[in-house]
Give the backbone structure.
Amino acid sequence: MVTRDDVIRTLEGVRDPELGGNIVELGMVTDVDVAGTSVEVGIALTIAECPLRNQIENDTRRRVEAMPGVDDVAVRTTAMTRKQRAGLMSVARARARESAEATQVSPTTRVIAIGSGKGGVGKSSISVNVAVTIAQAGFRVGLLDADIWGFSTPRMLGVEDRLEADPDTKLIVPVDAQGVKLVSTGLIIETEETALMWRGLMLSKALEQFLKQVEWGDLDYLIIDLPPGTGDIQMALTRMLPQAEMVVVTTPQRAAQKVAVRVADMARRSHMPIVGVIENMAGLACDCGRAHHVFGVGGGAELAADLGVPLIGSIPLDPEVVPGGDLGMPVVTSEARSPAANAIREIGDRLVELVPPAELETCTGRIAKILTELEEMPA
Ligand SMILES: Nc1ncnc2c1ncn2[C@@H]1O[C@H](COP(=O)(O)OP(=O)(O)OP(=O)(O)O)[C@@H](O)[C@H]1O
Ligand SMILES: [Mg+2]
């Protein structure tokens, strides 16, 4: 059973892209009604008509719809009263003061974390290829390798460079890897010995550094390659990036589903919505004309149905994936139309549909400008 409190916690993940805060703390949620599996949410916008309206409405609908036990969602929007605007202004001002503390990830950036219950199911291969394919489609994409010890993205993207700090801002500048802004511990560590030093570092601290001290710039998407399983990193992520959403990767093997469900459950308990499931290592098409289902059949669809989320796509086992990753040439960059590359390109398109990029056009441009306009606005 969904409760009003559950819905409110979920709404804390919806951000006003301009003011940076979430719609609950900004006092924009006027009411929440839960009747069985139907939820109605009232939202007060600063100004009745603005381009952000669609984004806030869509985010609200998507997030609430993704909650287990919710079938329909109605979102009603109204314009704020003078009193509501005054409340919003004080919260927004406080946030503007605190924003030096916040992460360097823009509130308009869509954050998609790629997770799984088991290791070795293809999270990193998918993160890298999806990041590259979305970048090829013209979006500004970052890739954060949150597998602090087990990093593999630099090798997969063929990066030799090391991370350096911007002399002016002192922030770390991501490395450009095939059109994607990449940050990974693998871009800091020189030798196995330095790798050992990093083991002493708290994982969540390393992630925090990557979010607060990296010059991410204006990105449309930040893809996060998670380490396997549930744990510190996932928790730290929801705390620091409330806009993060999760994609769960699984193999078609039915027995793998129980472990995958655990990750999804953890995501939900920390109010991170699940965008959908990607099945990897599905049937291998053979020249002999048959498909070999090495890891079984149907696990992805089953997990998606269990979680009540879409199956975003299914990637076949494909001999092109392994050398592509080893040689730093992700399959989606190769000319050859390999089956995995085709599936990943479709997954990229589907992800952009499911998690559309934030509207670039905003009502008034900058926070300061918004605040002034609100102040001048008649009751
Ligand atoms: N569709 C595929 N076809 C063939 N090989 C694949 C496919 N997907 C991934 N692989 C291979 O499987 C291995 C594991 O993939 P990857 O490192 O991406 O998994 P992971 O989930 O990130 O692992 P870890 O949990 O260790 O981080 C790699 O060698 C990769 O090249
Ligand atoms: Mg990995």
Q: What stands out?
A: The two ends are 40 Å apart (CA to CA). The longest helix spans residues 82-98.
